[in-house]
Amino acid sequence: MAYDDPGWNRASAWLEGESLDPRAELQVVDVPINRSVTPGSCDLAPDAIRKVLQRYSTHAFHDFIDVRGVQVTSHPETSDVGALTTILSKGITALIGGDNGVTRLGVAAMKRSLNLEWSQIGLITLDAHLDVRSLDDGPTNGNPVRGLLEDGLLGSNIVQVGVQSFANSPQYVRFAHEAGIRSVTAEVCLTTPFDILFESELERLADRCEAMYFDLDLDVMDRVFAPGCPGSRPGGLTPLHAQQAARIAGSHPKVKAMDLVELDPTIDINDCTAMAAASCLLSFAAGMLGRP
Ligand SMILES: [Mn+2]
Predict the structure, then answer these.
(1) pLDDT (tens digit, 9 = 90+) per residue, 147-165?
(2) How many CB atoms lie within 10 A of CB 20?
């Protein structure tokens, strides 16, 4: 049984709607799709993330923020773009995946909810992969970015942060380059002050569009930190990098939605990946409280 201390509030209660002087709102929806290139159980991720939030509090030392200042509204799980559009039209939304296929649905819903043109939409990913695999076998977790290009998103409005060597084929790297997609390698992320780097990439993208979507593929983290992601490899980012990116994205007025994808709880070890995912959701909410 969990030890209950009235002086220690749990982040799980926050996700269930507990708030304190709320001055921002976050829509939360589970999108447990599971159509991965490598079969897995990403559909179990939302429950795993909710469960580990019991082990977090709501205080962020960055700016001494209590994320209970963000009022959460949870919506019934869905992978229907129409239903997602309705949710996104209510405000800033976190989509809890599910595999990376969530991103194509989420970006489409964001565009529709704001009634914008594709040229006004930006996508920033934190991902080891380019996700531009062929669409021949339908939508999977390996091709959401390819699918979005097909849908109309401009390659020049996409930036992918944390991409890794030997995790992408030469053909797909060439494809992404020719599409005008900007990519920042994990090595650059790990050898440059990351918060400054991520903020400048976000600002650069913000200059080109009206609304931005932040896709956080947990496999951007090193395999040591993300054993629960089939795609994670040694040489990736740390949970702190992912938290920083989530906070910075959360603080940007043009970021309208984020997703957390690619956690397969059945291969996670000691909840490492689920806990990292949960901390990123909290960081995004903390960032929201820093919006002007
Ligand atoms: Mn991905």
Answers:
(1) 999 999 999 999 999 999 9
(2) 14
